[in-house]
Amino acid sequence: MSVEYLGLSSINGPLAVLEGVKGAAYDEIVEMDVKGSQKRLGRIIEINNDKAVIQVFEGTDGMALRNTRTRLTGHPMRIGVSTDMLGRTFNGIGHPIDDLGPVNYDKLLDVNGKPLNPVSRKYPRNYIRTGISSIDGLTTLIRGQKLPIFSGNGLPHDELAAQIVRQASLGDNAGNGDDFAIVFAAMGVKHDVADFFRRTFEDSGVSSHVAAFINLANDPVVERLITPKAALTLAEYLAFEKEMHILVILTDMTSFAEAMREVSSSKGEIPSRKGFPGYLYSELASIYERAGIVKDINGSVTQIPILTMPNDDITHPIPDLTGYITEGQVVLDRDLNAQSVYPPVSILPSLSRLMKDGIGKDYTREDHQDVANQLFSSYARVQDARALASVIGEDELSDTDKIYLVFGKEFEERFIKQDSDENRDIFKTLSIGWQLLGLIPRSELDRIDTKILDKYYVPTSINSDNEIVAVEKDNMRL
């Protein structure tokens, strides 16, 4: 028989304190009856003797010390999961908000997930194609990887996230039995941004294989803390029980961390860096580490967390701690965005640490790694040439440095820049890369194997129509 507790001892922001509690457990879900008509859910986040601190998901508006009844459920936060959730839209705690009726759930699962034995993990291989050259070509996303996007306020990370959802696939060498789906979670977004995502998914025809969890900016802050966990619970079910390949996009993890800071402050905890709680690292890790592949299961969970860096500061605690946990990052650049380059991916600070293990002969193409290395090296040389030109003037540069200036301009305009609806396959990306490398003398291409150069390298130039064309043999540069 369940016991109901009448009244509360105190209310502070999204937190309610209940005294005289017996048999309560940390992280246990409670059901709260407000004024005899409103039903709300809460989560016990602290226990001290007979006192329990409760996070109220729907907020404490309208709650008073004497008009609330509280009942312990005896279990942690759970959500229903099933394949029928694909094509549907939910709020931050997994309740449908798309007016399409209830969902038939296969089972209820704890949103905190089950601990994954590290021994059972399988090393990530193969890649997920996003159709975006700067990601597929130079910071390739590998199945089972966690690859965050570091952005800034005002940069087009929402458009980039929507494009990835529209275009993402398992690539050209996917098996016949490989099913692919996307779980999308948005935290603390404005109504117009939420409508943009919904409209984009519907208009592009991809909504049937997307499950969206939307937490709006005016939704309770506590719900924001559950949203990524609810999304990952569904992703794990689809990947490890239904053996699907799932791409999880989480935006914006900065909103999640700021919600943590607000709740921590309400609890009176001692703050750490920038006012965030000292357990920010472990909370982020508990989310990011839910990506991966399990042995003997033909499924995977891949994550793309998106976070906005306050004041574009990559040393801020949120991107700083994220970088320790994840396997690389894709950094968006404000200067490129000001030049109307979309997506404004800053190549030099971006990297994918697992890229080398999921590309090449058996996955993409034999020349992929060499092309990526040479493009990265050549673009680094461009930055040196630009810095020198700003000091001594472009006319005083050597002929080689002038070639690199041309290469840098064309690289940004032809390789990094692409239309928001342009879906390039990996062969198109590599083809553009070779055309650009053709602008550079072969003697400068020291990051590519000689056999690869012999097979793919063709000297190029830019004609009067601003097209890159092959140089005639008579005029070929050595």
UniProtKB/TrEMBL annotation:
Designated name of the protein: V-type ATP synthase beta chain
Keyword Oxidoreductase: no
Function per UniProt: Produces ATP from ADP in the presence of a proton gradient across the membrane. The V-type beta chain is a regulatory subunit.
Pfam families: ATP-synt_ab, ATP-synt_ab_N, ATP-synt_VA_C
Chain ranges of the ATP synthase A/B type C-terminal domain: 357-457
GO molecular function, one term: ATP binding
Transmembrane found in the keyword field: no
GO biological process, alphabetically ordered: proton motive force-driven plasma membrane ATP synthesis; vacuolar acidification
ATPase F1/V1/A1 complex alpha/beta subunit nucleotide-binding domain: residues covered: 131-352
Residues covered by the ATPase F1/V1/A1 complex alpha/beta subunit N-terminal domain: 9-64
Family in the record: Belongs to the ATPase alpha/beta chains family.
Origin species: Johnsonella ignava ATCC 51276
Keywords for this protein: ATP synthesis, Hydrogen ion transport, Ion transport, Transport
